[in-house]
Amino acid sequence: MKATSFAPGHISGFFEPVYNQDLSRTGSRGAGINISLGAISEVIIENSSEQNFDVYINNKKSNAPVTKLALKYLLGDNPLNIVVKTTLTLPVKQGFGMSASSALSATYAVAKLTNISMDEAMKASHFAEVQLKTGLGDVMASWFGGIEIRKSAGLPPWGIIEHIPGNYDLVLCVIGKKMDTKRILSDPIKSNKIMNYGKLCTKKLIEKPSVENFFSLSKTFAEKTGLLDSSVQKAMNAANKYGMASMCMLGNSLFAVGKTNELKNVLSKFGKVYICSVDEYGPRFLQE
Q1: Quick one: which H or E segment has residue 113?
Q2: How far apart are CA 221 and CA 161, in angstroms?
Q3: CA 80 to CA 231: how far, in whole Å?
């Protein structure tokens, strides 16, 4: 049996980590944008006498801890042989939510083939990601689609998300080295700043929910938390002449909307550029 599904990447502009002993209530408050680049997973399932997962990412065999743990949460001890071939259209550890979209695209396809509800696929991916500290709110956001405000953390009914209407072309630029989300979230000083400014920015965006305010608050968050690297700052300043730009959380990369061609040209001096758009649909099956 075979199925292929896609899950959008997700960029956080700012976030406030929320931890709870119950993984259903763990996640983040904040805001971000789901994008048309992400993860495509082709899944092949065969009956087996024991459980086995083989995961390939961009044609290389991978440990893929988040995807494998998500599949374990989804299937329990069900003895199946599962091969997952995931293609990522953006780099990992650059604030594009690739671990979340990898896990979600894989569990979504497996759920379809095993007649498990899609909600369980989302839950399994969320549990794996927050347990391994590779992200907090990306799975829920990717599931929801669009430009979103995560008003409260976790899965429904605790997690509450609202849309900010709008569909834009985005220009992404990868500027510096990868960021280790787990290491940053485990640093008490950084984590404290992220929590305080994340809470403040979320409150201000809920008071005035607009794309302009989202970009402005994202920029404030990047600067005040000390996460903003000088090279990303320079690129952001250059991009702001042609639109609005801020840093992807957590990565040495940025996202911008405005005059797409001009943004593409100016940002290509700073790093690798990708063009995409807002994805409003969340995870979905692709026709073979």
Answers
A1: helix 98-114
A2: 20
A3: 47
54-75 burial code (b ≥16 CB/10 A, e <16):
ebbbeeeebebebbbbbbbbbb
Reported pTM:
0.95
In the chain, what are the domain boundaries? 1-288
Which residue type sits at 32?
G
Please name which of 121, 102, 95 lies closest in space to residue 62, comparing C-alpha atoms.
Answer: 102
CA-to-CA distance for 223 and 201, rounded, in angstroms? Answer: 12
Please give the helix or strand (H or E) that residue 54 lies within, else none: strand 52-57
Confidence of residue 181 (pLDDT cuts 50, 70, 90): confident
| Cβ atoms 250, 91 nearer than 8 A | no
Using DSSP's 3-state secondary structure scheme, residue 93 falls into coil
**What pLDDT digit, counting tens, does each position of 78-130 carry?**
999 999 999 999 999 999 999 999 999 999 999 999 999 999 999 999 999 99
Q: Which two tokens stand for residue 86?
A: 């995931």
Task: Record the tokens describing residue 124, joined without a space.
Answer: 């399994």
Give the CATH number of domain 1-288; options: 2.40.30.10, 3.90.1150.10, 3.30.230.120, 2.170.130.30.
3.30.230.120
CB 32 within 8 A of CB 214: no
Distance CA 224, CA 234 (A): 16
| CA separation for the pair 28, 8 (Å, rounded) | 18
Provide the token pair at 60: 């290389």
Show the tokens assigned to 232: 């990303």
